[in-house]
Design brief:
This protein is an alpha/beta fold and 235 residues long. It has one domain: 3-Layer(aba) Sandwich (Rossmann fold). It has helices at residues 17-28, 40-50, 62-76, 99-127, 148-168, 204-215, and strands spanning 8-12, 32-37, 53-56, 81-84, 130-135, 173-180, 225-228. α6 (204-215) links the parallel β6 and β7 (225-228). α1 packs across α6 and α4 (99-127) packs parallel to α5 (148-168). The chain is globular and about 50 Å long.
Length: 235
Amino acid sequence: MTDLTDKVAIVTGASRGIGRAIALLLAMQGAKVVCVARSADDLLDVAHKINGLAVPADISDEDDAQNIVEVALRHYGRLDMIICNAGVGSFNLLENVDSAEWDRIFRVNVKGTFLVCKAAAPHFKLQGYGHIVGIASDVSKRTFVTGAAYGASKYAQDAVLSALRKEMRPHGVKVSTIYPGLVDTYFNDSHPGGPETEKTHLRPIDVAQAVRYILEAPPHVVVDELMLHPLTQDY
């Protein structure tokens, strides 16, 4: 089992929802967390709760993505883990999807993951260890009506992470992908905590616990992929 005490983790999309739950849980395990999101106020609240580092940033901007890694290294002197959690989505029939919305979804879900991993990869290769965990979606493996834009972005994100896994493994660096089903969060302008979602959705802490399980695997073990659903969701 890998001890997370004093390990340094970057968590994107950390201001609320799944990212917030991941940041809080990793801090409880003794990790030092670099919290990243565009929402500065919510981000500062999370970082304050865990005595972590808040880095407001747009992960789809290459300079911002590079700066996230550089700030973590300057502040803590090391970097062990990155959890690529930031994501956006909306759902509409293909004929009604605005091209600007298509670009926004791909910019965050695919380009953001690509840029953060690109910034960290040389450092992880040089030190000969590290762990990247991507929070994808079960729709990385299936399609559905109104899901063309979001699903396509998650298929693409999954491809980025799968290729990176093959590139990094010879250097001792792990790359894992989690595919959650329905999660009770603010995603797509939802309002979590409603009584109707208690039995039909995962909670953010469920995904955070999956991240912890993956990160705590022994050094010789890598969990390549992990899919989880609420029991009531048909897949």
